[in-house]
From TrEMBL:
Gene3D superfamilies: 1.10.1040.50, 2-enoyl-CoA Hydratase, Chain A, domain 1, NAD(P)-binding Rossmann-like Domain. This is 3-hydroxyacyl-CoA dehydrogenase. GO terms for molecular function: (3S)-3-hydroxyacyl-CoA dehydrogenase (NAD+) activity; NAD+ binding. GO terms for biological process: fatty acid beta-oxidation. It comes from Geomonas paludis. Pathway: Lipid metabolism; fatty acid beta-oxidation. Keywords: Fatty acid metabolism, Lipid degradation, Lipid metabolism, NAD, Oxidoreductase, Signal. InterPro entries: 3-OHacyl-CoA_DH_NAD-bd, 3HC_DH_C, 6-PGluconate_DH-like_C_sf, ClpP/crotonase-like_dom_sf, Enoyl-CoA_hydra/iso, NAD(P)-bd_dom_sf. It catalyses: a (3S)-3-hydroxyacyl-CoA + NAD(+) = a 3-oxoacyl-CoA + NADH + H(+).
Amino acid sequence: MRQMKRVAVLGAGVMGAAIAAHLANAGIEVLLLDMVPEQAKGAPAEDKAQRNQIADRALAALAKSRPAAFYAPEYAAWIETGNFDDDSHRLTECDWVIEVVLENLEVKQRLFRDKVVPNLKQDAILSSNTSGLSVNELAQALPAELRRRFMVTHFFNPPRYMRLMEMVPCSDTDPHLLRSMASFMDKRLGKGVVFAKDTPNFIANRIGTYAGAATWRHMVEMGLSVEEVDAVTGQAMARPKTGTFALWDLVGIDTVVRVMDNSYELLTGDDERELFRVPESTRRMVAEGLTGKKGKGGFFKRETVDGNSVKLCYDPESGAYRECVSPKFASVGAARQIDDPGARVKALLQGSDKAADFAWRTLRDTLIYTAKRMPEIADDVVNVDNAMKWGYNWDLGPFELLDALGVASFVARADRDGVALPQWLREVESFYRVEQGKRFFYSIVDKKYREVPLNRGQVSLTLLRSAAGVVERNAAASLIDIGDGIFCLEFHSKMNTMGGDTLAMIQKGLRRSEADGLGMVIANEGSLFSAGANLMLIAMACAEGAWDDLNLTVKSFQRAMMAIKYSGIPVVAAPHSLVMGGGCETCLHADAINAHAETYMGLVEIGVGLIPAGGGTKEMALRAVRLAEANGADVTPFLLKNYQNIAMAKVSSSATELMAMGLMRPGDGITLALDRRIFDAKLKAISLAANYRPGKPEAAVKAPGRGIAASIKTQLWNLEQGGFISAYDHYLASGIADVITGGDVPAGTIVSEEYLLDLERETFLKFCGQKKTQERIQHMLKKGKPLRN
């Protein structure tokens, strides 16, 4: 794998600046260059403020961007700005130069000739971030030797969050160098790499744009509204919940038009070229500044009417906005109840309403088009499926979806419609098979099944399960042998919520790992790590007044967390995505954390009127006390920071922020590559096992005391009087203050860890008995968002 210590990004537009930010996130020094502004052309070279304006403004904008471009604000210091005229000679310092200027062949080639070629160091890599121009045409501006080190590296926007990296070699690119760069993209930048061919818009935008165009065609044919289309083309179709037109608003309707125009212009031999012709109504929207979120509106916008925020929808036929109507389709409602994405789409297509008919038509056309483009756009179905999952956030790629629907069933239904199909599609039973812990794909080139390669350092729990790697299992969790004496505890309940079965498997998994292994990792491959404790069970217990049962449940949760903390083997948590409440508490009690970079973790129980009672409040108190003792300092500032995490339901915006929040500690790790997270956690468990010394529950903790709690309560009173929090927020936050400071005792009183757990549990039960907490729980279950009462 090539190492990139310093990278130059040429072009400080929205995309170039965001790429620079993500390189900085990965700990790489960046030189960000752009043009000298016209008005500064006469300024002396020493006047950096004038001549570097474009790059400087881009860097300043990154600090304010939402969603945040940096994992932490201080990472901006890894980017140095400059301009093409004064600083091109500094390209000699860089291991990799990425061009991200205007999407124009002539402009890019001129930059290569004038600024890059004369200054590039001998072994540096040059790449273009073009989203659709020909890599071979771009290469014509380069000397023959440099073409070996030239390729397309197409980031998707925003680069920090979008996993896809499309890599396209030119005819002269060194294949070993291409693979080395792909490894770098995976390990250092956390990218999912797909190898595309030199065709217009490569893979993801080719298929994604077609899918959008097909959606438009059938919307018009069937007379559907934009909100009806989005109701169908979101989660019901195993795609992002935004749906088609809300997504266009997000990425920019002008961007959609540009990609479609590019497709129409270049796809002269495509049998469905006409579908890429931009509708006049959409072109008119762009001309009127209706480009989506960044413009005056898009297919959707909000306006205040009589003091109320009203959602408006654009009618392409009339060119006017009207108030949105929430569509109700039986097929969509039924599909949304199903967790498995393949089964969900299958259920949608089995419906008998116009939504099901519309879904079938758009999916049919998109899947057939994708099949027809093989192997024009990629050598195998794996690259295409990954491109759509990582670039468009589809739950299933096109060929995975064909498997879920049944290839033969799909072909038969398409035949009934009288739609033409590629002949080879009739010869395929399925595109994927899993056998003996390996996944195979159908190769359309030689009509054989080939193994889907795993990245080095990738642990696939799915494949291990298929190879009889599961050693313990119940309805909510499993224990899987991941090799080298390490077991993985995997949650697999709905949203990976934690109930009795999960807690039982934590205890059972620890016993099995202690008996037969060296350590345990807690991780899963779900869309999120854990939504926390099963709120429905708590709501039912409150409704029935089953306080004794609830007390036992909370006690069981606490025992499971303490079992993790004081296990005879090291336990490493490997969280990713959302890690809420009890999921966070699980991580806090592990010996170490190895988090995916995009981990959004927090103790959020106050949002439903509760307190972290799985040891979370206790753990925040202990960490504050021990930090103060280690630094010979007053405990108050440490405690207040940890208290605020709970009372304000703070959630990290990245794994990096978990360090500042005190939820991760020195020695914990962060992995940018999602597929490497479990492997890295496994390595950490192995290293800890070498000299592991189990701990014992703490018996001598100096309680911070009621004086600090009184100070916190004074601030809470001020916040309530100022209208910043409700009276009930005040009540809840006061209860949390009492627990985290050790209860109604003088400062320095010696208490035990068990005593703090008892305080947590008593306060949790007290909160559960309050009507307003029960209202908050019900609101969260029904609406999926917190209630401020």
